[in-house]
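TA notes, week 10

Several of you asked for a full example with nothing omitted. So below is the full record: structure tokens for the whole chain, then the designed sequence directly under it. When grading your own attempts, check the secondary structure regions first.
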């Protein structure tokens, strides 16, 4: 958890001064005790330190801690673990959601193409994330290109890739076998195949459920029987419905619920809001949470998972979330912008 900081530069400098112990020149040299306080501060609510923290900090440094909300300044949005304000210019790696952030119903959102180009021009590492496990990165790159966005396939990270990576780690770190029964499409089967799995309908170690448009009762029956026989139940993403031009369609979460009802077993779900999705993405581009940001349009998936993975979080209002809905959540993003068009100047 990182604390929100806001307001103006002078106030931020003044606040930084209040964090210094007597005789301490900068926060970079903060001692063990105030580091512990700062870590406690970061564990408390995003906007306001807890009363007990304020008392302890005030006793330590003999000064009042001003409200963090009063310290907001553009470009200074959060604190790193040592309490230093983080600027979006410090961000080295970017993760971004796709639908509602870069595209909306197959149309590029204004500013998205320029943002991606800016990342390329400034050699920023970035990944476009999607919970959709139907398509391979190559398919998705082609779909994005048709929408007017040039995203190389190696810059796309799907819940299917994250699931395959997770299962590969499971096999390597335990004595699990590598046989998987899958319900899903090319995005999932290709990812599992490339991760070294044998796709089989006899005696699998895992049942892996992904998104598909052609669920069959026969396949679901087989999944139920494999799980009852001891196969581990894994799902790529929890989404109950997915969009289509004619309206919502049942998605992975809905089919998982059917299998759970029949087996009494809950799946382990890898996609958002599991921070596992972000951790595997960061591993892929050798990113570190201290210098990585997540852009998303959903508070209950993108922002909460980004927050739990320790990232700088950016909520865009170009997708599903309206500004007035933010107050209904007990957490906040570090930054809220109308759309990605507002981010280009910060990179
Ligand atoms: Mg989205």
């Amino acid at each position: 958890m990182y604390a929100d900081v806001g307001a103006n530069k002078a106030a931020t400098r003044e606040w930084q001064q209040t964090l210094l112990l007597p005789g301490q020149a900068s926060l970079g040299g903060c001692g063990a005790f105030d580091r512990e306080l700062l870590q406690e501060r970061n564990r408390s609510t995003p906007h306001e330190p807890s009363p007990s923290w304020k008392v302890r900090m005030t006793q330590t440094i003999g000064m009042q801690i001003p409200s963090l909300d009063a310290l907001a300044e553009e470009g200074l949005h959060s604190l790193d673990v040592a309490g230093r304000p983080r600027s979006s210019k410090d961000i080295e790696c970017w993760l971004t959601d796709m639908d509602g952030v870069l595209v909306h119903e197959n149309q590029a959102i204004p500013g998205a193409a320029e943002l991606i180009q800016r990342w390329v021009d400034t050699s920023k590492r970035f990944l476009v994330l999607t919970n959709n496990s139907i398509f391979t990165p190559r398919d998705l790159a082609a779909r994005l290109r048709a929408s007017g966005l040039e995203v190389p396939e190696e810059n796309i990270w799907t819940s299917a890739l994250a699931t395959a990576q997770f299962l590969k780690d499971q096999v390597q770190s335990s004595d699990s076998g590598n046989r998987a029964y899958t319900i899903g499409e090319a995005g999932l089967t290709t990812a599992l195949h490339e991760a070294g799995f044998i796709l089989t309908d006899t005696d699998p170690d895992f049942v892996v459920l992904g998104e598909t448009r052609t669920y069959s009762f026969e396949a679901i029956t087989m999944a139920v029987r494999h799980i009852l026989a001891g196969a581990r139940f894994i799902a790529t993403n929890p989404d109950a419905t997915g969009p289509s031009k004619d309206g919502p369609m049942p998605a992975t979460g809905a089919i998982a619920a059917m299998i759970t009802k029949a087996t009494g077993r809950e799946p382990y779900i890898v996609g958002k809001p599991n921070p596992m999705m972000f951790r595997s993405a960061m591993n892929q581009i050798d990113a570190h949470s201290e210098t990585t940001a997540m852009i998303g349009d959903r508070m209950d998936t993108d922002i909460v998972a980004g927050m739990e993975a320790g990232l700088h979080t950016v909520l865009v209002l170009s997708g599903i979330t309206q500004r007035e809905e933010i107050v209904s959540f007990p957490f906040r993003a570090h930054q809220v912008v109308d759309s990605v068009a507002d981010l280009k100047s910060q990179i």
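The CA atoms of residues 293 and 312 lie 4 Å apart. Use that as a sanity check on your answer.
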